[in-house]
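Suppose you are handed a protein chain with no further information: no name, no annotation, nothing but its sequence. What can you learn? This example shows the usual starting point.
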Amino acid sequence: MILLVAVSAAGLYWRRTRPLLTAGLSGAAILASIWAPNDIVLAPAIFAVYSVTVYRSGRAGWRVAIALEAAAVLAAVLGGGIPRPSGGFHPFNPAQNAGSPDYVSLLGFAVQFGVILALALLIGVNVGNRRRYLTALIDRARQLAVERDQQGQIAAAAERARIAREMHDIVSHSLTVMIALSEGSAVAAEAAAPDAADAMRKAAATGRAAMVDMRRMLGLLGGEAAAQTAPQPGFGELPELIDKFRSLGVPATYQLTGSQSVDPAMQLATYRLVQEALTNTLRYSHGPTRVLVRIELGDGALIASVTDNGLPGFPTEPAGTGRGLLGLRERVAALGGTLTAGPQEDGRGWRVEAALPLDDGEKVNRS
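A reasonable first move is to predict its three-dimensional structure. Written in structure tokens, the prediction is:
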């Protein structure tokens, strides 16, 4: 008897980590009571049912309770532990029951032990559900924290990409213009031409404009309010941009057809496309005689294109990283449009074209 109690009690050590093992040892102790007449070890079975229900599931608890109930009844019958009514009924110590076998008392024993197991099961279901609910809340909180961190990383990466795109659009264009002006002024100075001073003044003006653009772009880092109040170039600034490239020797012409409304974001994307295309023409195209900047508004779409008829030249600076066209593709895609860039069909010159869907926005400025 002492050995059976020790085995059952030892199983309680694993009731939280391995509750099924606890239930198995309790059931084994009950069945072993067959060889220990009038002694059935039942108390550990109650804790086993509770533990399985809490740390596994209610369904597993029901199965264990039924199995332990059957084992207890079997041990009572085969081990001679059938209750005797003459000495009273003692379900947890059948040895105290004396008299002839009474199956009614056995039924009472089974019912009482079953009720106790059912109570343990119900308490376990309540505690287990509460425990699983709290665990689910903790897991959900952790998952939300991970998702929040991931969203923050994605937002930071998108912001870095946007800043890199803006940096390229502003710095690359302005520095290309300044380099061209500086080289031209150096040649003019060697020839003692009066245009040298004018070229240097234009270079300084370009540098100042780049500084203003840079400060505006960096102001985006201060928050959405700064970004919303910062002036953004659009169609109204295109003639000035094209005139600047004309002064550098780029034979650019500008055509704007249609009068549909275009929102500021689409105007900014168009401005950046023209800026990038003209900058690449200045850097890479050799001897172009015609550069056409054309914007068509109609049929619910905006078509912006820049074409030149120059030959591939030898740039005076290292080749770019391709970030400019990549940034343009991202801008256009964000507005639901498409961008194509490549050589002309006749093999002479280059063409960059963007197609954007038109939405209601501000009136096009033709100035």
